[in-house]
Amino acid sequence: MERKLIDMNKYARKAHFDYFLSLENPHVGVTADVDVTELVTFCKEGGYSFYLTFMHAAALAANRIPEFRQRISGNGIVEYDECGTSHTESVGDGTYCYCTLYHHMSFREYIQYAEAQRKACRERNSIEEDDDAEGLYFVSSLPWLHYSAVIQPTAGRKDSNPRITWGKYQKDHAGRLMMPVTVLCHHALVDGLHLSRFYANLDKEIYAIIEQSDN
């Protein structure tokens, strides 16, 4: 991962950055239901992990938004060219470990790599990050619950790693499989416009994975 320093003298949101950085609770988040009907079918028919597959779509969706790749550094901003994911992996005793993945590859390459990484991380069983944590998205799930909101922990006012969480999918009145997806970001970097772009990108990336694998 490479990163560049943002020139704050040319940064359009400088006033917004300063304001939200001064707040005690500067994070902004939203939960929205995402249609995963076709993706669930795709994973079941292909024998793919839905967890790893959806994570790939979410990471690609986030990486298409520069503001999601930005982090607060001192009193300024750095922007990564790519951000990986640090996700929770169950180790079978009610606890979990952390596993880092990168997503700059085709789905077929990714899914083999991701399965190997999750196996290695489970064997290592550590909550220490595998890489420089600043440039990562923090990913977790609540597969037991279809929720309408979730509160995610942060390490303080300057913690600017986006959090992406999802819950249990279930059928709606039309029989579609809908899954709650939550995104939490630092408001000094991300506004509602950027959050909405993430969900629009997510829909596109889900179908891109399916179409890519069909070709």
Q: Radius of gyration over alpha carbons?
A: 17 Å
How would you characterize the largest beta sheet?
Answer: 7 strands, mixed
Query: Helical segment tally?
Result: 5
Number-wise, the strands total: 10
Helix content: 25-40%
Weakly predicted, low-confidence segments? none
Strand content range: 25-35%
Main structural class: alpha+beta
Q: What is the 3D form?
A: globular
Measured distance between first and last alpha carbons: 30 Å
Mean pLDDT: 94
What order do the helices and strands follow?
EHEHHEEEEHEEEEH
For this entry, give a set of tags.
215 residues; 10 strands; alpha+beta; seven-stranded mixed sheet; globular; three-stranded antiparallel sheet
How are the elements arranged and paired?
Blueprint: E1 3-5, H1 14-21, E2 27-35, H2 37-46, H3 50-63, E3 70-73, E4 76-80, E5 84-90, E6 96-101, H4 107-124, E7 136-142, E8 163-167, E9 170-171, E10 177-186, H5 192-214
Parallel strand pairs: 5-7, 7-8
Antiparallel strand pairs: 1-4, 2-10, 3-4, 5-6, 8-10, 9-10
Helix pairs in contact: 3-5
